[in-house]
Amino acid sequence: MNMIFTGLLVGNDFTKTMGIKVLKGKDFTGTPADSSYVLLNEAAVTAMDVKDPIEMKIRYGRKSEEYTVLGIVGNLVQESPFKPVDPMIILYKQQNAGIISVRLNDGVTPQKALSSIRPIFKKYNPGFAFDYSFADKEFEKKFINENLISKLSNLFAALAIFICCIGLAGLAAFTIEKRIREIGIRKVLGASVQQLILLISKEFLRLVLIAFLIAVPVSWWVMHNWLQKYEYRISISIWMFAIVGAVILLLTLAVVSANTLKAATRNPVKSLRTE
């Protein structure tokens, strides 16, 4: 059976440096004997459709050299995070190192590490430029569009909430002004400020609840379809909508209560004179 694998040449302590877990079998030991063994990632095992490839003989490369599967490691995202990880075969080729990966210990700054590595590199590779990059920065570049969309979404969401609050305050003020006589009569008949706030707020909360119930499935559908383009994605939790709903209800209650409180504390005689 012929299959296409992405080949990765590594040296000592590759899995440790990259933080990759050996899920089954063994890791490279750092001895010359490792050159006859390979590691497979989970995607490769899935593509091969075998239960236990450990000690399995496979041929790889232009010369179709034979290797023995030493272990299985977790998938390593090297290319696009938006696509499934390709089946990968990891070979121990210490002498063919073209890139050196360095993992910094806690407390070691990048500047301090570079000042230590640069003279060593120049000593053994005087004819080559000392080019370097940081894994986190390189990975961030893959999400430039997503970060921009996130910032714009937050900006427009905040603007939309602000406009909604202004509109809600205006609607509440208009509604209360139309019912100012009713509020005055109820107050004369013994209604408390809390009862008046509850009376007015119930109508607005009912409208907000209806709008929320309509918006939730639409929002879920949009988010679900947007997340499908990512191979690695979060799950949409019901708590997201519950928290948003609670915040909206609290904002509505605060805005309506503030306007109702102003009307409820007015002199009822003035309210009854209002046409």
Provide a descriptive summary of the structure in words.
By secondary structure, the chain is an alpha/beta fold. Helix content is 53%, strand content 12%. Strands 1, 2, 3, 4, 5 and 6 form a six-stranded mixed β-sheet that branches. It is elongated. The termini are far apart. The mean pLDDT is 84.
Structural class assignment: alpha/beta
Radius of gyration: 32 Å
Gap between N and C termini, in Å?
89 Å
Low-confidence stretches: none
Total number of strands: 6
In short:
The protein has 275 residues and is an alpha/beta fold.
Give the helix/strand layout.
Layout: E1 6-10, H1 14-18, E2 22-25, E3 37-41, H2 42-48, E4 57-60, E5 65-73, E6 88-92, H3 110-124, H4 135-141, H5 144-178, H6 180-188, H7 193-227, H8 238-264, H9 268-273
Parallel strand pairs: 1-6, 3-5
Antiparallel strand pairs: 2-5, 3-6, 4-5
List descriptors.
275 residues; alpha/beta; 2 domains; 6-stranded mixed sheet; 9 helices; elongated; transmembrane transporter activity; FtsX-like permease family protein
